[in-house]
Amino acid sequence: MRIITTWKGLDPADRGASVAMGNFDGVHRGHQAVIGLARAADAPLGVVTFEPHPRQVFSPEAPPFRLMNAAARAHRLEKLGVQRIYQLPFTGDLAGLTPRAFATEVLAQGLGVAHVVVGADFCFGKGRAGSVADLRALGAELGFGVTVADLVADGNDEISSTAIRQSLTEGRPRDAARMLGHWHRIEGPVLHGDKRGRDLGFPTANMSLAGLHLPRFGVYAVKVDVLSGPHVGSYGGAASLGVRPTFGVNAPNLETFLFDFAGDLYGADLSIALIDFLRPELAFTSLPALVTQMDDDCTRAREILATL
């Protein structure tokens, strides 16, 4: 898979893909349906997306909302067989293009797309002025096909990134996973922390949550994929997501204890899948009470993971 960060001056080998277009935050089942319709026997499968997310540009003061960072999104898209990610920089220049200019300069002349698939609610161009009907008309004029995918529902409810965020906010990772079509994962490098877990007999891998939507604070049963470094592999674990109130006021982070693991993970990239919410985050009055609770958490997490 190739990640291409411009639409200008592309190598001919990077042009001519059949693409799904959108933000694809979470790469949920609705997104997967759009991508599936972009598969073509005679063209590479591509995705056109934007970085940063347009909402971050237009509402920079809004609380973090993303389900995935760009790297996690790329990993998920690669698993779906995407061969080209056109991760276009969402700058003022791009945001200022009219629908016609976007279709002409970016899709037709820049990327040379063979076909474009979008969801039924897709809008594009300055002020979100372009509709799917406009895209169809422009595609017919400029020489690329357009398919509009129906929205996907979960029972009677439409699947959306908003609904997935709500499930995570309420501590319902399995409901989020049902809509996603995969476990909700938090990905990133292991950072140096205060190393309190090591002193307590539970060394943890610490990861930042900066820029991401925050699931309910508490302890989770998790599956861990170590993506880089000498310990690449999959492990079970228990993770604490929150602000660590026992130790004062702290920025939110994710601390994961890997079962049956020994080694140094600093700097390695991890992917943490939230499986089940075990309990809310608590402030403990003593370290022995905290250790006893951590033992119980790990026992419950092992039991849950054994059923998967």
3D structure, described in words:
The protein contains 10 helices and 14 strands. It has helices at residues 29-37, 54-58, 70-79, 92-95, 99-111, 132-142, 161-169, 173-180, 196-199, 287-306; strands at 2-4, 18-21, 45-51, 84-89, 115-119, 145-149, 153-154, 157-158, 185-189, 205-208, 218-226, 233-242, 253-258, 269-280. The model has no long low-confidence stretch (mean pLDDT 94).
Could you write a compact summary of the structure shown?
The chain has helices at about 30-35, 55-60, 70-80, 90-95, 100-110, 130-140, 160-170, 175-180, 195-200, 285-305, and strands at about 1-5, 20, 45-50, 85-90, 115-120, 145-150, 155, 155-160, 185-190, 205-210, 220-225, 235-240, 255-260, 270-280. It is an alpha/beta fold and about 300 residues long.
- Under the CATH scheme, the architecture of the largest domain is 3-Layer(aba) Sandwich
Strand proportion, as a percent range, falls in 25-35%
CA distance, first residue to last residue:
30 Å
CATH hierarchy class name of the largest domain: Alpha Beta
Q: How many helix segments?
A: 10
| Spatial ordering of strands, largest sheet | 1-4-3-2-5-6
- CATH fold-level assignment of the largest domain: Rossmann fold
Shape annotation: elongated
Q: What's the total number of strands?
A: 14
Tell me the name of the CATH homologous superfamily of the largest domain: HUPs
Gyration radius (Cα, Å) is 21 Å
How would you state the average pLDDT, rounded? 94
Order of helices and strands: EEHEHHEHHEHEEEHHEHEEEEEH
- Going by helix content, strand content and strand pairing, the class is alpha/beta
The main sheet comes to: 6 strands, parallel
Helix content: 25-40%
Q: Which residues form runs of ≥5 with pLDDT under 50?
A: none
User: How many independent structural domains?
Assistant: 2
